[in-house]
Amino acid sequence: MIDRAQFVRTAKMSSGGKNVIAVVKNNAYNYGLEFSVSAFLEAGIHSFATTSMDEALTIRQIAPDAMIFLMNPTYDFESVRANDFHITLPSLEYYYKYKDELAGLSVHLEFAGLFNRSGFDNVSDLVEIINDMDVLPTHVQMDIAGIWTHFGYADELDMQEYEVERKMWLDTLSSIKKTGHTFKYIHAQNSASFARDGLFDDHTHLRLGIALYGSRPYATLPVSDYEQSMTLKAPIVQLRHLRASQKCGYGGSYQPGKDASVAVVDIGYGDGILRKRAEFHCMINGKCYPIKALMMSHMIVEVDEEVSLEDEVILYGSDLRIDEFTNLGVGANSEQLGALNYNSLKKVIINDARVYQ
Ligand SMILES: Cc1ncc(COP(=O)(O)O)c(C=O)c1O
Which Gene3D superfamilies is this protein grouped with (predicted)? Predict the structure, then answer.
């Protein structure tokens, strides 16, 4: 269940009134691309980034005037042109190979930095592109609209490399600025980098993912800035009593050790619950109960006499935040969100103001 009104509030709150490019790749962190883009528009966000052409095309349908940035190198120049997408420019090789196709398109120069998944790794190559463009006749020039990088260490608070990559980037940026070229879009910071440093000077946009979706990039941040709009719950299919000697689950993985009541719950790792999540508790009627076994479609929870068959079992919610379990070692926030299987889980949107208009 997703509370749309809360989703919109969280998007506004977590971006702190700054200009944002919302990262909506992987079906908007599995919240749903169409749902998320329309909610982000309502939150005042008009720029979007994804890795996929299909997603970019869907975003264009919903947001005819938005800036849509393709973060992966693309070769489908026809679709880029037809839809006015902005694209990454990842290397000198790419530039010279596709120079003709790039004419008239909006590109953002990509700096590799320490993350180094893609992009230029030195200033002189970046300057070469700018200079090469400047001497071309206007009608064959591309528009160097932006410059960007991605940090690989901003989320790693116990590592020093973030300071190194941040300095590399800021030094690169100031060297590039000496060319006199002005960029409409300068964006580098993900959720963790923004939480650590605020928006860097001279940067036009943040490029946020997880914070917009209501998870703190690290646990010392205030929950109030990152309210979680999603609740994940499942029904109980059966209540059973086990004797102390009885085992239950594959390989007899759970043995209560005392006479116990258990709830068999209709959710499992096949629905995308990370296995590590089952080492912790769930919530029924506001009370915590230990999860004892996780199977593909079921979960065993040790309960008491207060629990009845009609009760709902909450795995994630405003009192069971995804980021709290991430902090306990249950994967990463985006890993749990991305794993949720909406072919088997039912997604229900509540508090959707559009429905009542
Ligand atoms: C290139 C790029 N920018 C920004 C983000 C957003 O990061 P976060 O979800 O940590 O805010 C991602 C996420 O993976 C990314 O790949």
Answer: Alanine racemase (3.20.20.10), Lyase, Ornithine Decarboxylase, Chain A, domain 1 (2.40.37.10)
